[in-house]
Amino acid sequence: MRKKVSLLLGVVLVVAVMIIVNAVWSPFSRSTEAMSQAEAVRGVLEQYQGGEIIKASLEGEMYRMELQSDTGKYELTVDARNGDIVSIKPLNQAEVKPEPEPVDPVQPPDQGNPPKPGENGGEGTTDGESGNGTGINNPEPPKTMITKEQATKLSLGKVAGTVEDVEYRESKSSRYYLVEIEREDGREATIQVHAITGEIMTITWDDDDDDE
What is the pLDDT along the chain (212 residues), one digit of tens a residue? Predict the structure, then answer.
C-alpha cells in the first residue's frame, strides 16, 4: 500500500514539475521566436513608403534585405525578433548631379548709346528677361540645403534618443549631415542625412561588426 502511495505521489510530482516548466518556458519561447519574412518586409515598407523589397533572406537572427527606392538601392539588416532596422548601406545610390551656376544673359549695347538700367539685359531687370523683349530666362537657382535643425529632426524620427553631435560634410558628388544620437539603452547611432533632399542615407550603430 505504501509503495502505491509513493508511486502515485511521484507521478503527481513529475506532472506538476512539467506543468510549471511549460508555463515558464512557453512565453519565453514565443517572445524569442523570429517573425515571418512577410511581417518583416511589411514593417520595413511602412517606414519607406514607395520603395520595393527585391530580395530578402534570414541569416541567424537577422533578415538581410535589398530595398529599391527612387534614390537608389540599399542593403538593410533587420532584427528578426522585433523588426527593428539595425543598419542601412547604400549599394548604388542615385548619382547627385552638380548644381548649375546661374548665368545672367548679357546683350550687346547699341552702337553709340550705352545701355540704360533695365534695358538690354543691364542692371534693373528683375523678371529674368532682357529689356529688348527677347524673353531670355535665367536658369533656376540651386536648391536650398536643409538646416542642422531639420537634419536633427529627421534623424530623431528614425532613432529616438539624445543628440550628441551634428556635423556637416560634403564631397564632389554629395552633401550630407552626420547626426550622432545616443539611445536610452546606451546604444549610439550615426545617421547620414542628405543635405538637400533630407533623405536618410545610412544608419550606423556603434556595435556594428562591419565598418561603413
Answer: 666 666 677 676 776 767 775 655 544 444 457 789 899 899 888 888 888 998 899 988 899 999 888 888 889 899 988 888 888 888 875 554 555 656 555 555 555 555 555 454 444 444 444 444 444 444 444 457 889 999 999 999 989 999 999 999 888 778 899 999 999 998 999 999 998 888 999 999 987 544 44
Rg (CA), the chain: 31
Cα separation values, 9 from 2, 13, 14, 19, 74, Å:
11, 6, 9, 15, 62
pTM above 0.70, yes or no: no
What amino acid occupies position 56? A
Cell numbers standing for residue 100: 548649375
Per-residue b/e over 156-190, b at no fewer than 16 CB within 10 Å? Answer: eebbebebeebeeeeeeeebbbbbbbbeeeeebbb
Q: Tell me which amino acid residue 93 is.
A: Q
Calpha distance 122→98 (Å, rounded)? 28
